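Priority: medium. Attachment 1 of 2:
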């Protein structure tokens, strides 16, 4: 299956790349870049403009897939970060449009809920705008909507990245 230039094989190969290859702040949008404007869909197909979150409080975006082993491995760190920072940071998962649908995401979330909303990037607009090279890609935006952290893989220090944007 090909979606917005990714093949499933390429996406899977990237998703299982060792963390040393995909470390923090060496991929995706450059630090200091303003968050791009992009519209996604909720799991019911309704449009959601990410600008509704950006520029109001810090935001953590995770480019995510139900089939991604690194996303699964990152879940405990994200859940702990959400428990600690969820009152001051807006967490959003961006479900990539490779080998999944809103229906398959809903089925997955019924058994494996996330403590924050999941949006769907049907056409890959967010993947392109945020230069997401893989699933498990995280972007942390400060309150002004500027990129302060990017990283990918299961071994990201999400708490430290969030401490830097909330001032703890």
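Attachment 2 of 2:
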């Amino acid at each position: 299956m090909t979606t917005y230039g990714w093949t499933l094989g390429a996406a899977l190969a990237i998703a299982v790349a060792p963390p040393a290859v995909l470390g923090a702040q060496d991929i995706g949008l450059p630090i200091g870049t303003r968050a791009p404007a992009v519209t996604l869909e909720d799991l019911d197909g309704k449009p959601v403009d990410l600008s509704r979150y950006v520029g109001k409080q810090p935001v953590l975006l995770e480019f995510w897939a139900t089939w991604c082993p690194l996303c699964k491995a990152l879940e405990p760190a994200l859940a702990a970060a959400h428990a600690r920072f969820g009152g001051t940071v807006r967490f959003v998962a961006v479900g990539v449009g490779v080998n999944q649908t809103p229906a398959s995401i809903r089925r997955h979330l019924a058994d494996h809920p996330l403590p924050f909303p999941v949006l769907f990037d049907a056409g890959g607009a967010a993947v392109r705008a945020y230069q997401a090279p893989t699933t498990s890609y995280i972007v942390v935006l400060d309150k002004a909507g500027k990129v302060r952290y990017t990283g990918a893989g299961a071994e990201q220090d999400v708490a430290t990245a969030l401490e830097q944007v909330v001032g703890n």
